[in-house]
User: Which sequence fits this backbone?
C-alpha cells in the first residue's frame, strides 16, 4: 500500500511538473507551484527525483518511453528488405509524433526545449534523436546501393524526417483543411505515401551518383 501511494505521488508530480514546465519553462518553473498542483509535499521531489533538474529529466524520459512503447509494434526485423524497413521506420516515427494520447502540454514542453535548450537537450539528442538518425541512415545507405556518400545520406535523412514533422507541426491546419484526424488508418496511408515518395527520390539520386 505504501509503495502504491509513493507511485501515485510520483505520477502526480510528473504530470503537474509537465504542465508547469510547459507553461513557464524549466528556469522559471518553481518547485512550490509544481507541488501545489500535484498536492504533494516538496520533500517528495527530493525523495523521488533529488531536485528540480531530476524531475525535469524524469518528465521527458517518462513520455519518451511511452512514445517508444506505442510505436514499437510498427518496427520490423533488420533482415527485412530496406524498403520494408523504411516504411516501418516512417510509420513508427509518425505514430510517435502524432500520438493523440499524450497530454496537451507535452508538445508545448518539447517546443520549449528545442527553442530554449536546457540541461536535458544533449541527453535528448543522444538517447532519442541520434539513434533514430543512425537507424534511418543505415536504411538509406542500403537503398542508395553505391559507395557511401555521407552528404547524400544526411540530406535524405533530413528530407524524410522533415516530411514526417510537417504533419506534426501542421496537424491543426491539415485537420481544418481536410477534416483529417490522424487515425491509425490515416497514419498507415501517410507512411505509405512518404515511403513511396522518398524511395523515388532516393533512386533518382542513386542513379546520378
Assistant:
Amino acid at each position: 500500500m505504501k509503495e502504491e501511494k509513493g507511485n501515485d505521488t510520483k505520477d502526480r508530480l510528473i504530470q503537474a511538473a509537465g504542465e508547469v514546465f510547459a507553461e513557464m519553462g524549466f528556469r522559471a518553473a518553481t518547485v512550490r507551484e509544481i507541488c501545489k498542483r500535484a498536492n504533494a509535499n516538496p520533500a517528495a521531489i527530493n525523495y523521488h527525483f533529488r531536485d528540480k533538474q531530476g524531475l525535469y529529466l524524469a518528465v521527458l524520459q517518462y513520455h519518451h518511453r511511452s512514445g517508444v512503447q506505442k510505436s514499437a509494434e510498427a518496427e520490423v526485423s533488420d533482415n527485412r528488405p530496406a524498403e520494408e524497413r523504411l516504411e516501418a521506420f516512417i510509420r513508427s516515427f509518425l505514430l510517435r509524433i502524432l500520438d493523440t494520447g499524450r497530454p496537451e502540454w507535452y508538445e508545448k514542453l518539447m517546443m520549449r526545449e528545442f527553442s530554449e535548450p536546457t540541461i536535458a537537450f544533449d541527453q535528448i539528442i543522444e538517447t532519442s534523436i541520434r539513434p533514430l538518425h543512425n537507424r534511418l541512415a543505415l536504411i538509406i545507405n542500403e537503398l542508395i546501393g553505391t559507395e557511401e556518400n555521407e552528404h547524400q545520406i544526411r540530406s535524405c535523412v533530413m528530407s524524410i524526417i522533415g516530411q514526417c514533422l510537417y504533419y506534426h507541426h501542421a496537424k491543426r491546419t491539415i485537420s481544418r483543411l481536410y477534416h483529417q484526424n490522424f487515425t491509425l488508418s490515416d497514419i498507415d496511408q501517410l507512411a505509405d505515401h512518404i515511403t513511396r515518395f522518398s524511395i523515388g527520390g532516393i533512386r533518382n539520386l542513386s542513379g546520378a551518383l
